[in-house]
Each structure stands twice: as structure tokens, then as C-alpha cells.
Amino acid sequence: MTTALATPAEPVVWVDLFQALFHANTPAWGQTLFAWGQLFHAEGRSNSELTSAVRALTRRNPMPNYPTEFLAALRAELRAQDESVRQQAEARRCSEITRPIRCTTCGDSGWCCGLPSLESVRGPEWIQPRWTCAVTCHCEAGQVLNSRWATRQPEPKPVMSWHDYARKNPHYEAQMETRRLEVAAEVMTAEQEDGPPEWRATVNAILSRYGQDPSGGQHPEDSREQWNG
Ligand SMILES: [Zn+2]
Fold this sequence. Notes:
Helices cover 57% and strands 7% of the residues.
């Protein structure tokens, strides 16, 4: 019986590789490898995981001798591979978390939100009601986002880029600053007329509940009454 050599295009089957590397061609080995195949299949091991574990066996010193030793060594290699995959994933995750933000405009989200909508802009004026819109940022994240939306399947949906937006509404910075001052003035007026806004009462109630009385002197038990009532 001749064994066909695997061409580079053909994936190597781990059993074939094992037989070739360890001269495991006896009928007894055939049965053993079949049983291992069932076992690894049940464990959800892929052929590529198994072939690289089989290759790693050749670097072992001392080399396994008996089927039970081979099986134990194979499983140890598979565990080592799992561990290295896990460590790589963990390292990737950590570097994602600790990576400093590169774009201060969008915080690396790719979106710039809260810009005056072109529909409610008349020259330098941002007219009432002041609709807002989002555009994709000028940074790399924004460019990736923009092209992803533009080529989205089945419904490509082009979104405006920062570049196009700034060209169509060059006054956006002044408009947003005006709006910011306006909001601050609105909040101040509301506070003067109606006292602190509702949310502040809620925050105070929560603080009191946890014994950090913002106004001083109230027992947590008392504030619970207030919270419920
Ligand atoms: Zn950005």
C-alpha cells in the first residue's frame, strides 16, 4: 500500500502525520488512532489543533514510547496550546483596555455627535428647533466606519464624513458654543425660578440613603421615609 504525499494545497490529516512521524502503521495502532479520533472529535478538537500538537510531540524529550504515553503527551500539548491561545487573547484584551485614546474628537468611537443638523442651519444661524446630527470622524476609526456603512450589504447607507460636513457648515463651532452658553443660561434661569431641578433632589435622596447627607444632620432612616414617600 502506498501513501500519497500531501500536496501543499491539501491539509495534512493529523492521523496521517502521526503515522508517518512515529511509524504507527500496525493494525493495533490503527485501532488506537481510530479510538483517539473519536475521543478528540467528542472534545471538539479541530484537525489543525491536532496536527500542531502532533508536530509538537517530535520536540519532546524523552519521546513517548507507548500509546498511553503518546495520548498523555498529545493532551498535554493540546492544553499548552489552549493556554497560549488564552494568554494571547488576554494580552490583546489588556492592550485594548490600556491603549490611550488616540482621537480626542470622537474618543475613538468614530462618531462625532451633537453637530448642528444641516436641515436646521441657515448660514451662520442654527435655527429652532435645533436638530443635531452625527457624522463620521476625521480620524482612522471614523474613516473605517464611513467606508463600512457605505459598503454595507444589503443596504449601503452612506453617512456624512467630517470633511464634507465642515465644508457644508463651516460655522458649526460658533453655533455649538452659542448653544452651550444658551443651555447654561436656561439651566440657571430654571434654577432661579423653580429651585434646583428634579434630578438634584433624586441625587440628594440617594446620597442621604447611603449616609452621606448632602444638607447635613439627617439620619439615613429618616431619608428612607422620604425616599418611599
Ligand atoms: Zn475620531
